[in-house]
Protein backbone atom coordinates (compact mmCIF):
# COMPACT_ATOMS: atom_id res chain seq x y z
CA UNK A 1 0.00 0.00 0.00
CA UNK A 2 1.13 3.51 -0.83
CA UNK A 3 1.98 5.04 2.51
CA UNK A 4 0.97 8.50 1.28
CA UNK A 5 -2.65 7.37 1.01
CA UNK A 6 -4.41 7.55 4.37
CA UNK A 7 -5.40 4.08 5.54
CA UNK A 8 -9.04 4.62 6.50
CA UNK A 9 -12.35 2.76 6.30
CA UNK A 10 -10.71 -0.63 6.29
CA UNK A 11 -10.48 -3.63 8.62
CA UNK A 12 -7.84 -6.34 8.53
CA UNK A 13 -7.54 -9.65 10.31
CA UNK A 14 -4.54 -11.69 11.38
CA UNK A 15 -3.73 -14.85 13.27
CA UNK A 16 -0.72 -15.87 15.33
CA UNK A 17 -0.91 -19.67 15.06
CA UNK A 18 1.80 -20.46 17.64
CA UNK A 19 0.03 -18.37 20.21
CA UNK A 20 -3.53 -19.55 19.49
CA UNK A 21 -4.55 -15.96 18.94
CA UNK A 22 -6.39 -14.00 16.32
CA UNK A 23 -6.79 -10.29 15.90
CA UNK A 24 -8.46 -7.52 13.94
CA UNK A 25 -7.69 -3.89 13.34
CA UNK A 26 -9.96 -1.20 12.00
CA UNK A 27 -9.69 2.48 11.25
CA UNK A 28 -12.66 4.57 10.16
CA UNK A 29 -12.62 8.10 8.73
CA UNK A 30 -14.97 9.30 5.97
CA UNK A 31 -17.48 6.57 6.91
CA UNK A 32 -17.84 8.04 10.40
CA UNK A 33 -18.08 11.56 9.01
CA UNK A 34 -20.87 10.45 6.70
CA UNK A 35 -22.78 8.76 9.52
CA UNK A 36 -22.40 11.76 11.82
CA UNK A 37 -23.41 14.18 9.06
CA UNK A 38 -27.02 13.01 9.35
CA UNK A 39 -27.13 14.14 12.98
CA UNK A 40 -25.85 17.04 15.05
CA UNK A 41 -24.34 15.15 17.96
CA UNK A 42 -22.28 16.84 20.66
CA UNK A 43 -18.61 15.72 20.89
CA UNK A 44 -19.21 13.20 23.72
CA UNK A 45 -21.88 11.40 21.69
CA UNK A 46 -19.79 11.58 18.50
CA UNK A 47 -16.90 9.85 20.24
CA UNK A 48 -19.18 7.24 21.82
CA UNK A 49 -20.78 6.39 18.47
CA UNK A 50 -17.35 6.42 16.81
CA UNK A 51 -16.04 3.82 19.27
CA UNK A 52 -19.22 1.77 18.93
CA UNK A 53 -18.92 1.78 15.13
CA UNK A 54 -15.27 0.76 15.33
CA UNK A 55 -16.33 -2.16 17.54
CA UNK A 56 -19.18 -3.04 15.18
CA UNK A 57 -16.75 -3.04 12.23
CA UNK A 58 -14.24 -5.20 14.13
CA UNK A 59 -16.85 -7.81 14.98
CA UNK A 60 -18.84 -7.56 11.75
CA UNK A 61 -15.77 -8.10 9.60
CA UNK A 62 -15.21 -11.45 11.34
CA UNK A 63 -18.45 -12.81 9.82
CA UNK A 64 -17.50 -15.46 7.30
CA UNK A 65 -20.83 -15.12 5.58
CA UNK A 66 -20.79 -12.16 3.16
CA UNK A 67 -24.52 -11.52 3.65
CA UNK A 68 -24.36 -11.90 7.43
CA UNK A 69 -25.29 -9.10 9.75
CA UNK A 70 -23.97 -7.98 13.09
CA UNK A 71 -26.07 -5.73 15.29
CA UNK A 72 -24.89 -4.07 18.45
CA UNK A 73 -27.35 -2.46 20.77
CA UNK A 74 -26.66 -0.67 24.04
CA UNK A 75 -29.59 0.19 26.21
CA UNK A 76 -29.77 2.25 29.29
CA UNK A 77 -31.41 2.22 32.64
CA UNK A 78 -31.50 5.80 33.92
CA UNK A 79 -28.50 6.95 31.91
CA UNK A 80 -27.90 9.90 29.61
CA UNK A 81 -28.13 7.64 26.56
CA UNK A 82 -31.44 5.87 26.00
CA UNK A 83 -30.38 3.69 23.13
CA UNK A 84 -27.44 3.19 20.81
CA UNK A 85 -27.70 0.95 17.79
CA UNK A 86 -25.02 0.08 15.22
CA UNK A 87 -24.99 -2.57 12.58
CA UNK A 88 -22.78 -4.10 9.91
CA UNK A 89 -23.88 -5.89 6.79
CA UNK A 90 -21.67 -6.71 3.83
CA UNK A 91 -19.13 -4.04 4.75
CA UNK A 92 -21.81 -1.39 5.28
CA UNK A 93 -22.02 0.37 8.62
CA UNK A 94 -24.69 2.55 10.18
CA UNK A 95 -25.54 3.72 13.66
CA UNK A 96 -27.36 6.24 15.82
CA UNK A 97 -27.68 7.35 19.43
CA UNK A 98 -30.79 8.50 21.29
CA UNK A 99 -29.88 10.56 24.31
CA UNK A 100 -31.16 13.15 26.73
CA UNK A 101 -29.47 16.44 25.83
CA UNK A 102 -30.42 18.08 29.14
CA UNK A 103 -28.93 15.29 31.22
CA UNK A 104 -25.81 15.35 29.05
CA UNK A 105 -25.45 19.10 29.60
CA UNK A 106 -25.68 18.68 33.38
CA UNK A 107 -23.04 15.94 33.48
CA UNK A 108 -19.23 16.13 33.41
CA UNK A 109 -17.35 16.95 30.18
CA UNK A 110 -16.00 13.40 29.99
CA UNK A 111 -18.77 11.22 31.38
CA UNK A 112 -17.93 7.64 32.35
CA UNK A 113 -19.64 4.70 30.71
CA UNK A 114 -21.78 4.41 33.82
CA UNK A 115 -22.82 8.08 33.62
CA UNK A 116 -23.78 7.54 29.98
CA UNK A 117 -25.69 4.30 30.40
CA UNK A 118 -26.49 3.83 34.07
CA UNK A 119 -27.19 0.15 34.63
CA UNK A 120 -27.26 -0.51 30.91
CA UNK A 121 -27.06 -3.61 28.78
CA UNK A 122 -24.97 -4.51 25.77
CA UNK A 123 -26.48 -6.87 23.24
CA UNK A 124 -24.65 -8.27 20.23
CA UNK A 125 -26.47 -10.29 17.59
CA UNK A 126 -24.77 -12.29 14.85
CA UNK A 127 -27.04 -13.26 11.94
CA UNK A 128 -25.64 -15.68 9.38
CA UNK A 129 -27.41 -15.17 6.07
CA UNK A 130 -26.77 -18.54 4.41
CA UNK A 131 -27.71 -20.75 7.35
CA UNK A 132 -30.24 -18.38 8.90
CA UNK A 133 -28.50 -18.99 12.23
CA UNK A 134 -28.72 -16.31 14.86
CA UNK A 135 -26.61 -15.93 17.94
CA UNK A 136 -27.37 -13.28 20.50
CA UNK A 137 -25.66 -12.41 23.75
CA UNK A 138 -26.71 -9.77 26.24
CA UNK A 139 -24.60 -8.71 29.21
CA UNK A 140 -24.64 -5.80 31.66
CA UNK A 141 -22.63 -2.81 30.40
CA UNK A 142 -19.81 -3.16 32.90
CA UNK A 143 -16.51 -1.32 32.88
CA UNK A 144 -15.14 2.18 32.69
CA UNK A 145 -15.17 2.27 28.90
CA UNK A 146 -16.91 0.65 25.95
CA UNK A 147 -13.69 -1.34 25.35
CA UNK A 148 -13.94 -2.88 28.82
CA UNK A 149 -17.64 -3.56 28.37
CA UNK A 150 -16.85 -5.42 25.14
CA UNK A 151 -14.13 -7.48 26.86
CA UNK A 152 -16.62 -8.38 29.58
CA UNK A 153 -19.13 -9.33 26.91
CA UNK A 154 -16.74 -11.87 25.38
CA UNK A 155 -15.66 -13.26 28.68
CA UNK A 156 -19.21 -13.66 29.94
CA UNK A 157 -20.96 -14.81 26.80
CA UNK A 158 -18.22 -16.95 25.23
CA UNK A 159 -15.69 -17.51 28.02
CA UNK A 160 -13.01 -16.30 25.64
CA UNK A 161 -10.33 -13.96 26.92
CA UNK A 162 -10.27 -10.91 24.65
CA UNK A 163 -8.57 -7.59 24.42
CA UNK A 164 -10.45 -4.64 22.95
CA UNK A 165 -9.02 -1.16 22.36
CA UNK A 166 -11.29 1.50 20.94
CA UNK A 167 -10.71 5.14 20.33
CA UNK A 168 -12.50 7.93 18.51
CA UNK A 169 -11.92 11.62 18.24
CA UNK A 170 -11.26 14.55 15.98
CA UNK A 171 -7.72 15.12 14.75
CA UNK A 172 -6.01 18.52 14.64
CA UNK A 173 -7.45 19.14 11.18
CA UNK A 174 -10.96 18.45 12.50
CA UNK A 175 -11.35 15.08 10.77
CA UNK A 176 -12.99 12.34 12.79
CA UNK A 177 -11.11 9.05 13.14
CA UNK A 178 -12.32 5.99 15.03
CA UNK A 179 -10.05 3.02 15.45
CA UNK A 180 -10.02 -0.34 17.15
CA UNK A 181 -7.97 -3.40 17.96
CA UNK A 182 -9.55 -6.71 18.88
CA UNK A 183 -7.63 -9.77 20.00
CA UNK A 184 -8.94 -13.14 21.06
CA UNK A 185 -7.40 -16.21 22.49
CA UNK A 186 -8.59 -19.30 20.66
CA UNK A 187 -9.41 -22.52 22.44
CA UNK A 188 -6.80 -25.10 21.58
CA UNK A 189 -7.47 -27.78 19.04
CA UNK A 190 -10.72 -28.88 17.48
CA UNK A 191 -12.09 -30.53 20.59
CA UNK A 192 -10.76 -27.79 22.81
CA UNK A 193 -10.42 -27.86 26.52
CA UNK A 194 -12.89 -26.20 28.76
CA UNK A 195 -12.69 -22.63 27.54
CA UNK A 196 -12.79 -21.14 30.99
CA UNK A 197 -9.32 -22.57 31.63
CA UNK A 198 -7.64 -20.82 28.74
CA UNK A 199 -6.72 -17.74 30.71
CA UNK A 200 -5.12 -19.74 33.51
CA UNK A 201 -3.30 -22.26 31.36
CA UNK A 202 -1.93 -20.13 28.59
CA UNK A 203 0.97 -17.79 29.22
CA UNK A 204 1.16 -17.26 25.43
CA UNK A 205 -2.09 -15.33 25.59
CA UNK A 206 -0.63 -13.05 28.21
CA UNK A 207 2.33 -12.46 25.92
CA UNK A 208 0.06 -11.50 23.00
CA UNK A 209 -2.04 -9.31 25.25
CA UNK A 210 0.96 -7.56 26.81
CA UNK A 211 2.37 -6.68 23.39
CA UNK A 212 -1.00 -5.38 22.20
CA UNK A 213 -1.23 -3.17 25.26
CA UNK A 214 1.88 -1.33 24.09
CA UNK A 215 0.02 0.08 21.11
CA UNK A 216 -0.80 3.71 21.69
CA UNK A 217 -3.95 5.46 20.63
CA UNK A 218 -1.76 7.74 18.47
CA UNK A 219 -0.54 4.83 16.36
CA UNK A 220 -3.89 3.10 16.17
CA UNK A 221 -5.63 6.29 15.02
CA UNK A 222 -2.93 7.60 12.70
CA UNK A 223 -4.22 7.30 9.11
CA UNK A 224 -0.61 7.60 7.89
CA UNK A 225 0.29 4.16 9.28
CA UNK A 226 -1.12 1.25 7.24
CA UNK A 227 -2.87 -1.28 9.47
CA UNK A 228 -0.53 -4.04 8.27
CA UNK A 229 2.40 -2.02 9.66
CA UNK A 230 0.73 -1.96 13.08
CA UNK A 231 0.50 -5.76 13.08
CA UNK A 232 4.18 -5.89 12.13
CA UNK A 233 5.17 -3.46 14.88
CA UNK A 234 3.44 -5.56 17.50
CA UNK A 235 4.25 -9.08 16.41
CA UNK A 236 7.35 -9.04 14.21
CA UNK A 237 9.16 -11.37 16.59
CA UNK A 238 6.60 -14.14 16.23
CA UNK A 239 7.56 -17.12 14.09
CA UNK A 240 4.46 -16.71 11.95
CA UNK A 241 1.74 -14.08 11.60
CA UNK A 242 -0.86 -14.71 8.92
CA UNK A 243 -2.76 -11.71 7.61
CA UNK A 244 -6.28 -12.30 6.34
CA UNK A 245 -7.93 -10.44 3.50
CA UNK A 246 -8.99 -6.89 4.25
CA UNK A 247 -12.58 -5.67 4.34
CA UNK A 248 -13.33 -2.22 3.01
CA UNK A 249 -16.05 -0.37 4.84
CA UNK A 250 -18.69 2.07 3.72
CA UNK A 251 -21.73 3.81 5.11
CA UNK A 252 -25.01 2.21 4.13
CA UNK A 253 -28.64 2.10 5.17
CA UNK A 254 -31.47 -0.15 4.12
CA UNK A 255 -34.26 2.37 4.46
CA UNK A 256 -34.87 2.98 0.75
CA UNK A 257 -38.37 3.88 -0.37
CA UNK A 258 -38.89 0.58 -2.17
CA UNK A 259 -38.06 -1.45 0.94
CA UNK A 260 -40.28 0.71 3.16
CA UNK A 261 -43.11 0.26 0.67
CA UNK A 262 -42.67 -3.52 0.81
CA UNK A 263 -42.81 -3.53 4.61
CA UNK A 264 -45.88 -1.29 4.75
CA UNK A 265 -47.65 -3.29 2.07
CA UNK A 266 -47.68 -6.26 4.48
CA UNK A 267 -49.86 -4.41 6.98
CA UNK A 268 -53.65 -4.74 6.66
CA UNK A 269 -55.19 -1.77 4.88
CA UNK A 270 -57.07 -0.64 8.00
CA UNK A 271 -53.82 -0.45 9.96
CA UNK A 272 -52.13 1.47 7.20
CA UNK A 273 -54.97 3.98 7.23
CA UNK A 274 -54.64 4.39 10.98
CA UNK A 275 -50.93 5.15 10.55
CA UNK A 276 -51.50 7.76 7.85
CA UNK A 277 -52.10 11.45 8.16
CA UNK A 278 -53.73 13.16 5.18
CA UNK A 279 -53.19 10.02 3.13
CA UNK A 280 -49.46 9.87 3.84
CA UNK A 281 -47.54 7.61 6.23
CA UNK A 282 -44.36 9.18 7.54
CA UNK A 283 -41.75 6.50 8.13
CA UNK A 284 -38.77 7.50 10.25
CA UNK A 285 -35.30 6.14 9.77
CA UNK A 286 -33.39 6.73 12.98
CA UNK A 287 -30.09 5.88 11.26
CA UNK A 288 -30.54 8.56 8.61
CA UNK A 289 -32.55 10.95 10.85
CA UNK A 290 -35.01 11.27 7.98
CA UNK A 291 -38.73 10.81 7.48
CA UNK A 292 -39.87 9.12 4.31
CA UNK A 293 -43.38 10.08 3.16
CA UNK A 294 -45.26 7.12 1.71
CA UNK A 295 -48.61 7.82 0.04
CA UNK A 296 -51.34 5.33 0.96
CA UNK A 297 -52.35 5.25 -2.70
CA UNK A 298 -48.93 3.90 -3.66
CA UNK A 299 -49.45 0.86 -1.39
CA UNK A 300 -52.69 -0.31 -2.93
CA UNK A 301 -52.20 -3.50 -4.83
ZN1 LIG B 1 -31.85 5.00 6.77
Radius of gyration: 21 Å
Helix content: 25-40%
| Unreliable segments of 5+ consecutive residues | none
Average pLDDT figure? 90
Distance between the termini: 53 Å
Q: What is the helix/strand order?
A: EEHHEEEHHEEHEEHHHHEEHHEEH
Number of helices: 12
Strand arrangement, largest sheet? 7-6-3-4-5-11
Principal-axis shape equals globular
> Percent of residues in beta strands?
25-35%
Structural class: alpha+beta
Give a list of the ligands. zinc ion
The major beta sheet can be summarized as: 6 strands, mixed
Summarize this structure as a short list of keywords or feature phrases.
301 residues; alpha+beta; 6-stranded mixed β-sheet; 5-stranded antiparallel β-sheet; 12 helices; 13 strands; 31% strand
Written overview of the protein:
The strands form 3 sheets. The protein has a 6-stranded mixed sheet with strand order 7-6-3-4-5-11. Strand 6 and strand 7 (134-140) form a beta hairpin. It has helices at residues 30-37, 43-60, 101-106, 113-117, 146-158, 198-201, 203-212, 217-220, 227-235, 257-265, 269-275, 296-299; strands spanning 10-16, 21-28, 69-75, 81-89, 92-99, 121-127, 134-140, 162-170, 176-185, 242-248, 250-251, 280-285, 290-295. The longest helix has 18 residues, at 43-60. The chain is 32% helix and 31% strand. The protein is an alpha+beta fold and 301 residues long. Bound molecules: zinc ion. Residues 253, 255, 285, 287-288 line the site of zinc ion.
Amino acid sequence: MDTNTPDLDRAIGFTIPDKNARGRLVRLGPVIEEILAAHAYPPVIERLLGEALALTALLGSTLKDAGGQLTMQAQTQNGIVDLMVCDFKGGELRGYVQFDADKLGEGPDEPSLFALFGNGFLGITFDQATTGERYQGIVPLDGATLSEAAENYFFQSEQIPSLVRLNAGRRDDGAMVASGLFLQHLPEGEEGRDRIHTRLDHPEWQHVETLAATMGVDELGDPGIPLENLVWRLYNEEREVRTLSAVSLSRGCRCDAEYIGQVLAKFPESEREAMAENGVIGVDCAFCAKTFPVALESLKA
